[in-house]
Hints:
Elements: H1 2-15, H2 22-32, E1 45-46, E2 53-54, E3 62-66, H3 67-72, H4 78-82, E4 88-92, E5 98-102, H5 115-118, E6 124-128, E7 131-132, E8 147-154, H6 158-161, E9 168-174, E10 183-193, E11 199-211, E12 215-226, E13 231-232, E14 280-292, E15 298-311, E16 315-316, E17 330-331, E18 338-354, E19 358-376, H7 384-387, E20 391-392, E21 404-405, E22 411-428, E23 435-455, H8 464-468, E24 497-519, E25 522-543, H9 546-549, E26 563-564, E27 570-588, E28 591-602, E29 605-606, E30 612-615, E31 621-624, E32 628-629, E33 632-645, E34 650-662, E35 665-668, E36 680-683, E37 687-698, E38 704-717, E39 739-742, E40 745-748, E41 766-777, E42 782-793, E43 796-797, E44 820-821, E45 824-835, E46 838-845, E47 853-857, E48 864-867, E49 872-880
Amino acid sequence: MKAEYLLSCALVALLGGTAATAADTAATAAAATPAATQSNDGEIIVTAQRRNESIQKVPLTIQALSGDTLSKLNVTTFNDLLKYTPNVTYSSNGPGSGAIFMRGLSTGFAGNQSSATIAYFPNVALYLDDQSMQFPARNADVYMADMQRVEVLEGPQGTLFGGGAEAGAVRYITNKPDLQNFGGHIEGSAGGTVGGAPNGSFNATINIPIIQDKLAIRGVIYDDHRGGYIDNVASNFTRANSDGGNHYFNNGGVALPAAQQSNLGQYNNDALAKKDFNPVDYTGGRISAKWQINDNWDLLVAESYQKMDAEGTFATYPIGSDFQTLGKLQTTVFTPSYNKDSYENTAWTLNGKIGDFLKVVYTGAYMTRHIQTQQDYSNYSRTGGGMYYQCTGGSTGWGNGTPFCYSPVAYWHDSVRNTHLSNEVRVSTPDDKRIRLIAGAYEERFRIDDVMNFDYKTIPSCTATLIASSQVCSGSVQTFPGSTANQPGVEPNNTAFGEDVQRGYDQYAFFGSVDFDILPNLTLTAGTRYYHYKEFEVGSQFETSPASCLEVIVCSPNGGGDVNIDANNDRVVYHGFKSRASLTWKPTDTTMVYGTFSQGFRPGGFNRATKLILPDINGVDQLLRPNGYKPDTLTNYEIGVKTDLLNHRLQVNLSAYYMDWDNVQIGFFNPAGGFGNTSFVTNGANFHVKGVEAQIVARPFRGFSAQLGATYNDSKQVSSPCFISNVAGSTSFGSCITSFYTNGVQTALQSPFGSKGSSLPDAPHEQANLRLRYEWAGHAGIGYFVSGGASYTAHTYNQPSTYPTGAGVLIPGTTLLRYRMSGYTLLDASIGMQRDAWTLSLFGDNLTNSHASTFTSSAQFIKSEVIIRPMTYGVKLGYTF
C-alpha cells in the first residue's frame, strides 16, 4: 500500500533524527504553525469580515477550528469536520460527490449523474484561501493538511463573498511561509477499519527562509489511504415479472423466458465481486513563496495540487440487485465504479499600504479541475425506461419480431473539466479609527465542460453486415450537428442517452462596508454589494430511439430527445444589490450583543430542453417544461451575544436567527409521475427558517477544556405553488394542473413543491457536539493527554414532503424517492503523550461502530444508503523540528 510505504519511510527517518530541546521546539513550532491563527490566550483570529479580528468580536455566528485543533481531532476531510460543526449537513454519494447545507437550507439531493450539466449551484460557498472551490453537487473535497484554520460562516455572506454564499461559507485558510524561522512537521498514522481494510497516512511540512526577513518558501505533501469497508458480493441479475418494461412484450407483463434473452438470461458480477470494494486515496501537496518587497508590501504565490481516487461505491444496498437481503456493509455492483477527481490551483496575493492610511490587497487564483466518474446503473434495467434500450420486438419499436432482451448490465460515465479564474482588489482603512471602511471589486470566470454518457444500450450496434441481414440493431448517437461540443461526433456504441455541454458565467461585482463607532461601545456596520452575472449554456443532448436509430450506422437527430442547446439561446444576465447591516453593543469589555440583517442569493440556470408533458383528457399536453430557472434569495435576521468570562475560562456564545428563503430552486425527476424522462429544475415555494445556536468553551482548571456546540433548527413551508398550465388549448390553461391522463386513465398529479407547513429536507431539528480534553505533565519531561468527543444528529429526510415515498418500493420509478434517515450519535477518543518534539497518540473514531445512513436515496434506481464509515482505530506519530 503506497500510503503505508510512505509512512514506514517517514518513521524510519524520524527515528534516525535528533530530538530538539523543549525551548527549540517552542521556537520552531511557530514556523510549523504560524501564530496568526490564535492569540496568546488561545483565542481564534478570523477574517470573516476581511479584517483580522477575534472570533468573539464578529457579529455573526461563526464556527472555527485552528490547525492545531484539526490535528488533535484527526480532521483531514470534510466528512471528519462535520462531527464538530453543528448546523452543517452534507448529502453525498461519496468523497467529492456531495453538497454542503447550512441551517437546513436544502431542497434535497440526488445522484451525481448529469449533475455537472443540470444541477443548480450550491448555496454554501467553499473557499481555499481566496479561491472558490464550489461546484454543482460536487464540491471539491479539499484535504486539510497544514491548515491554519477552518472557518464556518453561517447565514448569508453575499456582501463580502458573493452569490455562492447565500446560506453561508466554509473557508479553508492555509498556513503561510514564515520569513524568520526554519522548521517543519512530519506526521504519519497507521490503523484499521472494523469490518474493512487497513488505513495509512503521511504528511510533511517544511518552512525555509531563503533570505532572512525577505523571502521564504513553505511546502507540504500528503498521502492518505483509507481502506475500503463495503463488500461487493457475488450476485446474479435475473429479469423478473415485476420489471417495469415487461408490458412491451404483450404477454401479460411477465418476464421473457431464458430462451428469449441473451446468454440465456444469465448475468452476474463475479468478475467484480470482492471485499473492501471502496478504498479512497488522497495525494497532493502545496508550495508557497512569500516575498517581503519592502516594509509596506509583500507578495505571496501558492501552487496546490490534489488527486483523489475513490474506487467502488460508498452506498450499501439493503436489498441487492436480485432482490436478496444484504448485510450492513454489502452491495451488488456489476460494472467498474470510481470517482477520480483532481485539481491544480495557482493563487497570488499582493498586500500593501499606501501611506499610513490605506491598506491594499489584490488576490487572484486560477484553478483547473478534472473529474472522471463511473457508476453502475444496472438497476435501471428493471424499469420501462431501461428496458427500452435493451429489448427488441413486441411493442418496443425495435422491429416487430419475437421479443428478445439483451444484457441488463449498465453504467453511466461522466467526464468533467472545470476552470475558475478570480480576481479581487480590496482597500481598507486602519482598524483603530472611529470610522473604518472596506471597499473592493471582484471579477470571475467560471466554466464547466461536461460529457455525460448513459451507457445502458445493449441492443446490438449496427454494422453493414447486420443491416444487410435485416437483424434488428441500433445506430450510435452523436452530438447534434452544428452544436458546440467538447467531443464532437459519434458517441460510444452502448451510449443510449447523454449530453455534451458547456456552461458557466462571467461575473463582476463591487462591494463596500463601513464600521462607525457611534459610541466607544456601540458600533454600526453597513455594507452592500452590486453583482452582475452573465450566464450561458450551449451544447447538445442526444438520445437513442427507433425513429432515428433503427438499422442505421449513426442515428440522425429526430428533434425529440436530440436537442441543439445552442438554438435555445440560453444566455441571461442577473444583476442587483445585496446588503448587510449590524449593530454591536459592548456593555463590558468581555461581552458583546449584536443584531444583524443580511441578504444572500444564488444565480439561476438552464435546463437542457423544454418538453410538453402532462396530457389532459383530450390528449393535449398541459405544461411546457421550463427552459430555465431564476435566482432564489435569502434574508436573514439574527441576534446574538458573545461573552468571554472568568479571565478566559468561560466563553458563551448564543445566537438566534429567522430567515426568509424565497423562490427556492428545486430539481425534479419523476417519469412515473408524468414529468418526462429527464430531470429539470424550476423555482418553487417560500420557506421560513428559525433556529437557535449555542457555543460554549470552558477551561475550569489548567490543562482541561470542554467545548459544546448545539443547534435547534426549524423550517416551515409558507406558500403552495403549483404547475400552472401554459399550453393554450389544454382544458386547464391558466390554472393549476391537478391531474393528467395516460391511455385515457386519469392520474392525480403529485406536486413536487411540497405543502404548507412541511419541513425542508437535509434539515435535522437538533444537532450537537461535545469535546473534552485533558493535558497534564508527567515525569521525565513527558506530557500526557486524553480526549473524547460525541456528536448527535437528529433524524431528517432526503427529499421534500410530497415526493413519492420509498418505503416498501423495490423497483423505483424515479431517482428522487423520499426516505427517512434516522438520527445517530458518534463517539471518538484519543490518548497519547508528548516529549520534546515528539507526539504519539492512539485514536478511535466512531467507537460505537454506527452504520447510520447520512444519505438514503434511489439515485441508481435501487434503495441505497451512504453510511458512516465504520469504527476506525490507529496510532499517529508526529515530529516537529
